């Protein structure tokens, strides 16, 4: 053993902070990107939002190659002061802009918020009880009712928390269960449906006995078995089942469903002549640039070493953020254009002509890694002539068919849904019969378990559940 010096040449991938930032921005959705930019604007004083009206079309950000317009690359924070001064003096603000429009006005701030289920119940509680003890118990009960309208605690737990008797809690619970919407405050589905039947004047009859004793049989439509156990006619059971079917098993749904999520597309795909064009939707994305005040402060001199180092660090961070956003937008455009080339038939003729496509095919076409394509297509939406779709929608496996061709799995699911919609409701098709029809009419070589899987994805019940009883 002896000491010696060796020179070795190795390659390794190091995830620097700037590379981690670029990867993170790539997989962000539009809303997440805006939130991230807002946070950076708060934390980095050298970064500012450009609010003036841009000149010219802004469908596409300038390509990454526009960095060549810079007079020189940004120096390292460890470089000398003179190089930083030259960089800031010759800095081109036009390059550091991002986006193509003023920030969209926040219309949501002018809208009133929808009333929640808890607020609706508290208003009714304020006029339904008269004593402080009842008001305390009722507040605790309302606070433990979930968004579906069900009570997620027990009478004993409420009594222990408020220091009241179980009888008093039970009495207030019956008051709450009489509130609107009907069925609210129930502890399970059976009690929820029974409360609604009682409010309709149908309590104590066959329908209430069914929801309390035969809920599983009702779900499976075992009406003959119910009629035998209850010693009533089949017609009476069917009539009671119809009345139960008109009830709401989720009383709070009317409040939970008021605010529907709004999806803003990241990409617009439109037809221009015989070709399809791809453009970025950048309305609402802040335009960024480096603040001129800090550039002038740096050039003026007289700064202490700590202040100078701080400005260098923040300017470098802002510059990398802007470049990362430009690279993100350019990558999204590149991937989307490749998708348009592969799925041209879909854009021309609809979902029946969607082709099987995998990430590797696009990655090889644009010379990027599959993980990059996966990040780009996650949580990104495109407005197309066929509707609004997530970019992930265009990637799917294929089902073999005659002649060596394949059909996209999404197209097969669409065919399956059309077959089920057109079937005889009195004689619904089994999975095996659907397999045979897909093979005879479309030449698809598909297994029965695949049909069952697609049916589950489409939330279509099996044949025995789809059979309608008249």
Structure description:
- The chain is of the alpha+beta class and 470 residues long.
- The chain folds into three domains: 17-103 and 266-384, no CATH class; 117-256, Arc Repressor Mutant, subunit A (Orthogonal Bundle), CATH 1.10.10.1330; 396-466, Homeodomain-like (Arc Repressor Mutant, subunit A, Orthogonal Bundle).
- It has 22 helices and eight strands.
- The chain has helices spanning 17-27, 30-43, 81-89, 117-128, 132-143, 155-162, 166-176, 189-199, 206-213, 215-219, 223-230, 234-245, 253-256, 292-300, 305-342, 344-349, 359-366, 370-377, 409-421, 431-442, 448-457, 463-466; strands spanning 47-50, 267-272, 275-280, 287-290, 381-384, 387-390, 398-400, 406-408.
- The strands form three sheets. It has a four-stranded mixed β-sheet, covered by helices on one side.
- It is flat.
- The protein starts with 16 loop residues before the first helix and ends with a helix.
